[in-house]
Design a protein that fits this description.
single chain; about 80 residues; mainly alpha; 3 helices; elongated
């Protein structure tokens, strides 16, 4: 089965295949979780060592959680 993007844009068929799209999906997911871990570590470091509550890091962590949970629920309901 051809991916919907590949069927709409014929020139991409020469350069993009299903493996490429799967690798891109996996690498993006890994990058997102890695960013979450780093943001969490910075947040914890600032609380424990600098005694500063970092609202910007908390916003990054909460944004990730809301988007990830929201997309999981949306895919679950629409799949």
């Amino acid at each position: 089965m051809t991916h919907p993007i590949l069927s709409r844009i014929p020139i991409l068929r020469n350069y993009v295949d299903e493996r490429f799209l799967e690798h891109r999906r996996r690498s993006s997911s890994l990058a997102g979780f890695s960013t979450l871990i780093v943001a969490g570590c910075i947040f914890e470091y600032r609380i424990f060592f600098s005694h500063i509550l970092s609202w910007d890091m908390l916003a990054v962590i909460l944004t990730f959680a809301v988007v990830k949970t929201g997309m999981c629920v949306w895919y679950w309901l629409n799949d």
